[in-house]
Amino acid sequence: MCDCSKEAIESSFQFKDYYPLISSAVVILLFIVDRVLSYKIRKKEVERNWYFKVLLEPNLEKINTFFLDVEKQYETSAIKLKDLVSKLSHSEYIKTQSLEINSFKEIKRRFDLEVIKPIITRYPFMNENISIKTEDLQNYYTVQIDNLKLEQDDINEFSKSLYNVKAEWLDLLYKPLGSEK
Q: Where residue 181 falls among pLDDT bands split at 50, 70, 90?
């Protein structure tokens, strides 16, 4: 057995002798945690600012222009097709209808290249949602034209729906500013 007494063990190991060492270690550990958290917060803020300044802010005007162009194109197409529906043969009317839909597709292609591609290149997780919204808009436009929704009430309804789509688009585009990547 050991000759060590309880007092000998207590006298050789006392916590009060290690308080300065423990407190220094805690301060260093808190400093390291603070630096790591500050770095992550700063990095996230730089990413948000970059997204806003480089991708979103310069494209807001293009987004507004896109939706205005789509609205004007629909109105122009509806007026033109309404006038031609009784004047052209069915096959000629279908060709004209197809040309009007292709005019929309050209506006959409330009928008894809100028606005959508740069965003989804940097934020691929947004690709599916953006693609779905764009395809839904194209389908809606095509269905409206195909179903001869050409009256002024139809044009107004299309414009109203278009503004709803625009609001959903803007909400979608602002998501990277509020969420973690």
A: very low
Distance CA 59, CA 115 (A): 6
Burial of 110 (0-12, 13-18, 19+ CB in 10 A): middle
pTM equals 0.73
Q: Where are the alpha helices (DSSP H) in 51-126?
A: 57-84, 90-111, 117-122
- Give pLDDT tens digits for 153-176: 999 999 999 999 999 988 888 887
Tell me which H or E stretch contains 113: none
CA-CA distance, 150 to 144, in Å (whole number)? 8
CA distance 97 to 94: 5
Joined tokens for residue 110? 């330009």
15 has pLDDT over 90: no
User: What does the radius of gyration of the chain's CA atoms come to, in whole angstroms?
Assistant: 32
Assigned token pair, 165: 């789509």
Number of C-beta neighbours around residue 74 at 10 A: 24
Any long-range contacts for 53-56 (C-beta under 8 Å, 24+ apart)?
55/118, 55/119, 55/122, 56/173, 56/174, 56/177
The torsion angle over the Cα atoms of residues 175, 157, 73 and 91, rounded to 10 degrees, is: 120
Integer angstrom CA distances of residue 74 from 17, 22, 91, 142: 83, 73, 21, 10
